[in-house]
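Recall that a protein's primary structure is simply its ordered list of amino acids. Everything else, from secondary elements to tertiary packing, is in principle encoded there. The following example makes that idea concrete.
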Amino acid sequence: MLLEARNLHIGYGDAPAVWDASLDVDGGEIVSVIGPNGAGKTTLINTIAGLMRCREGTLRFDGADMNKVKPHGFCGHGIALVPEGRRLFPKMSVEENLELGCYLPAARAMRGQSLERVYGLFPILRDKRRQPSGELSGGQQQMVAIGRALMARPRIVLFDEPSLGLAPTIVDDMFDIIVKVRDDGAAVLLVEQNVLKALGIADRAYVLEQGRIVAQGLPDDLLKQPHIREAYLGV
């Protein structure tokens, strides 16, 4: 198993946010975590990305104990995050934002090849590579955020609410891109409120509610559960 999280307890100060959460992601998989606002999805994915520490539990990536790895070391192990809200530097050009993803020596050595890979995936970014990223549309900015993650040559890409704030016409394209990221060789862990889209591309999925994983399984099986249908699909 590529990523193994076991019995994670995560909090902010004295306030617990995630309790006893366990999940796995294997190579070549898209695994989705769905749940309502405030369920702890971003807290969970930020912990897996190294931005937060768990109070209890085990986090392993390709056998390495990530609880012993400093936050800046997660990228070197092959973990990349596409954060909620994109978090670009708006006054820097598209290409400058992309290059921030390949600051590690191994990734820097592949800079040219990685840029071509990103521009092949997002041809519009090649045309706009000298333009300040803050002048792009929301969908184009999301492309830059994904491209920046891919510049690190990751083994797993963590997506935090990638469809948030995008026009409905762009959302389908965004999920197609996530599938392409997996098909190009990186595993995917996707946190997303758009339940049908997230389950539509997932190999497996987890349901997170009030800080706890309350269900897991194959997407089709989860969609048959009355609670899931009522809570997330309004059926």
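The radius of gyration is 17 Å. Residues 88-153 form one domain.
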